[in-house]
Fold Homoserine dehydrogenase.
Amino acid sequence: MTKKDVLQIGMIGLGTVGTGVLRILEKNGEEIRHKLGVGLEVKRIAVRDPHKPREIEVDPSLIVDHPDHVVNDPDIDIVVEVMGGVDLARQAIARALENGKFVVTANKDLMAQHGLELLAIAKNQNRNIFYEASVAGGIPLIRPLKNSLAANHIEKVMGIVNGTTNYILTQMSCEGKEFSEALAEAQEKGFAEADPASDIEGLDASYKLAIIAALSFSSKIDMKDIFVEGITNVKLRDIRYAQELGYAIKLLAIGEETEEGLQLRVHPTLIPADHPLAAVANEFNAIFLEGDAVGEVMFYGPGAGSLPTGSAVCADIMDAARCLQHEVENGIVEATFGTKKVVPMEKQQSRFYLRLKAKDEPGVFASLATAFGETKVSLDMIIQKRSDAETAEIVLVTHGVSEGNFQKALDTIEAMPAIRSINAILRVIE
Amino acid sequence: MTKKDVLQIGMIGLGTVGTGVLRILEKNGEEIRHKLGVGLEVKRIAVRDPHKPREIEVDPSLIVDHPDHVVNDPDIDIVVEVMGGVDLARQAIARALENGKFVVTANKDLMAQHGLELLAIAKNQNRNIFYEASVAGGIPLIRPLKNSLAANHIEKVMGIVNGTTNYILTQMSCEGKEFSEALAEAQEKGFAEADPASDIEGLDASYKLAIIAALSFSSKIDMKDIFVEGITNVKLRDIRYAQELGYAIKLLAIGEETEEGLQLRVHPTLIPADHPLAAVANEFNAIFLEGDAVGEVMFYGPGAGSLPTGSAVCADIMDAARCLQHEVENGIVEATFGTKKVVPMEKQQSRFYLRLKAKDEPGVFASLATAFGETKVSLDMIIQKRSDAETAEIVLVTHGVSEGNFQKALDTIEAMPAIRSINAILRVIE
């Protein structure tokens, strides 16, 4: 490779993120050239429908109708994949790497499921894939994990990595809305998709966790090893009880390396009101990390959006450009990923929040406490309120217990005649 | 340069940070070697007093009594300066660069005052200086500014970059302590030095601001262009009023690029209680940035301490090692720093919080309001309380006004016979 004055970029996709990338390259192109010592020029943009009207004006001669025209163009140095989806993107990226190009992608589904396979192709070709934008939009995370925190053994990662669910939970908590009302509002404001399933059921967060955990723990992560529970069952009532007990409820993606193995889970979680993650409101994202040297650090910012995600893509393009300029052919600095053992969910320890209704009669609470005691689940906090003339609402928070043992306690309690209903089960962290 | 199996490190200084660096290299050496593909070995450590007892056991044969023995050793690849101070460190680093070594430093005083000079020497020599640890300890900041956010035009930076003062302000705010009591406690707990002047008077924060602002705005920063006010005059009473008005008080280092030029200042600041910086408690630091693409991002973590700062130093050592391994001789990616205009403090806009005592008699408030009105200072919030039988305490928050105009209003008010005393003046941001 010889140093060039201008590096050619080929884009695949021109949706929200792609538009952001073009806008940033246009607005800050001079500053970027100044910082890099080389210019960046978009040479081709592959789109599904060349005739679709776009939010941004693009020279029609740049537009092509298939990724192949981008990845096979010998003049293109850096391929930027921002079309999303898995199969076509995977083929295009593999081909681009095989053709000797550096690749930048914002595709979390792809990186979560086929990231290591693509990184291996890149390594083979002395090239690299940059994927900062695949997790938490504009928030620097992949790069800090690879570099700034590289001397640390990462012990734990907890992230608010889905803006839709955080917006909904914030609106429930601060405005007293119920889930369905908050979801409708999020859809109206563009923070939730028309089909919100992937967000509200925690799937989106689990892809991001797979990517973060792989890097944090230098391990291959299989999506099926991640326990996933969404927020569709979170009630305003539980948010209010949580507040009374000193907690906020957030959908957290949690990865932890313990002596028994990796623990990987996504679920709504009670976190102490003074925890830095508790203050992360609305559509914002944040990732909280614990390293053995650095201690606790948190990265906060917009987890999605055209320009924020474009900011991350452009930073990756700049890194790829530096690799090309400095003739570093293989910029891959990730550790070779091992395969660490994963702790099955039923053996993972949690604290539990439990809300139930019981007959308001003498001895009920005692028998409930006994049932917990017999299954070795000890109680930390209790609220009991009268629900109606004959029913009491009881809220309990347990100390740490394995999921399996908690389930046993729950089975016992559910069978008790005095228990009318179990209305909520949530996990709690300190 | 040819690839080596082990890179040799020479350290200058073995205090708190140096000890942290050694501990991390020892504990995580294997992981680091795995990630880098090369081992790191500490070959020499220069200390002032070789016979001083140390917290960490070190092979005595490594110890030398002058930095020259480190920077002139031809076997040493990377020099790590963690002794602090300006003159000797500056000489040692310059010599190390001239001898072809990469340099890592945690020295904020040095980088704030002579950073560009040293970076120029490095560039000349095709080497680099890494200084992540010089600002905000273990929190990734320098690197994100250079890389992750490089495609952004940074518009504003606001940082809680001094742990001592944040600890003191948190204790005042949460525990109802007065300044002197909180300071004494901070000293007891090791969060404040025996001589706390540099921290509590804002000087330490101003050095950090110089480094952050230079990188954020790609401009040379002269220390004398930074307005600095410490927290010694912050009273518990003002923290309470601030809370009543919906604000927290934090010592902020603020850098902003406006059409008129750069604004650079360190002062105690009222910030809205729901701002992410307001939740940063005790000795923790955080830096909040606004970029034109990414929007608002924040980096949070421990701003000091042996292992956290060591974590940043080790990340820099790893970056230097990568440069050496990949034969990238000049890793400097900073823009050439220009010299941007700085707005003089009297022309900078602020909102002001003002607490004063006035005679509790008819017409006083009206004449106060008139005095403000005549100097074009408009009022946003007002609290008036009876102080004693004859005196009222009045708290005002103005809308935006230039420092110069506010001073004029203040002069007028001070001269009013009904005004007994002006007890507090603080700046406010939204």
Notes: Residues 347-428 of chain B form a domain with the Alpha-Beta Plaits fold (CATH 3.30.70.260). Chain B touches chain A through 61 residues (CB under 8 Å). The first strand of chain B starts at residue 6 and ends at 12. The mean pLDDT of chain B is 93.
